[in-house]
Amino acid sequence: MEYRKLGKSDLHVSAICLGTMTFGDQNTEAEAHAQLDYALSQGINFIDTAEMYPVPPKAETYTRTETMIGPWLKRQSRDKIILASKVAGGNRKLDWIRNGPAAVDRDNIRTAIEGSLKRLQTDYLDLYQIHWPERNVPIFGQYQFDPTKETKEWVSIHQQLEILAELVKEGKVRYVGVSNEQPWGVMEFLRISEQYGLPRIASIQNSYSLLNRGFEFGMTEIVHREQVSLLPYSPLAFGHLSGKYIDDPQAQGRVNLFPGYAQRYTKPNVTPASAAYAALAHKHGMSPAELALSFVYHRWFVTSTIIGATSMAQLQENMGAWQKALSEEILQEIEAIHLRFMNPAP
């Protein structure tokens, strides 16, 4: 396993991060612990979770993932694990999170961190991320900014950083990051942290895959020049890049278990693009999942790729893709498909 520096922090994270959003819905606690044990045995030292997990978010399962991880973490050498979690943002209709509204103000962030630490049975988080911006931004399948949706006051980025600074000073959080963030937001977090001596974001966790390469439009220059680490999630595009939905749209998986969720994958070119990438994988003796994961794993601007699985077999295949770096020929063929089906799932 390769280890890479997280932003300008002193953390060195494995190139693969174990995502946990299935724990507590699709996976039992025993299955979750088995995945965690296997990941650790394979050199993964980076675990990502969130107070909102499992996904899709529901009032009856909210916080269950962290609750499952806690007993496992208690048995580990804490200083060997780099643990990341997230505070749910605002501007989403999830009124059951901390009894709503789920803003990122002082009271909400403090309630969130104390809850996460208690559930995870630890005194600190290595990385604490704002799950999504509170302000009006196009996320989760939306792709156009709409200024007419500026309907509410939102906690300023300066205020958010001041609150996070308190947690860092108290030793509850080592480093901070953002998720589902936009270019303006990233640069504001960086500008304000430098101007006022507040914690600097170490990372950004955004969706990135063969079907969603929007991060390459502007954000790659930012993370390169500003030394912020990208932690891409959904590298298999909700299972579409495994190829299983091409011949059988009713195949078992998150798409059919949770109908109406993940709107970005309902767009017209998702299926033909997935089929093209699957055909390319088969042409070169790879599974579609191996092609899709290897592509993300080895992008020059990726620090650690967040993967998840509902079975041990899936987890093993996903991790095995790390060893299958793509040739220049395959990369050129990927670009040809990308030009035909550019970002079908923004």
Automatic annotation (TrEMBL):
One of the record's GO molecular function terms: oxidoreductase activity
InterPro entries according to UniProt: AKR_Detox_Biosynth (IPR050523), NAD(P)_OxRdtase_dom_sf (IPR036812), NADP_OxRdtase_dom (IPR023210)
Coiled coil: none
Secretion signal, residue range per the UniProt entry: none
Key words, A-Z: NADP, Oxidoreductase
Every NADP-dependent oxidoreductase domain range: 15-337
Family membership noted in the UniProt record: Belongs to the aldo/keto reductase family. Aldo/keto reductase 2 subfamily.
Name of protein: Protein tas
The organism of origin for this protein: Methylobacillus rhizosphaerae
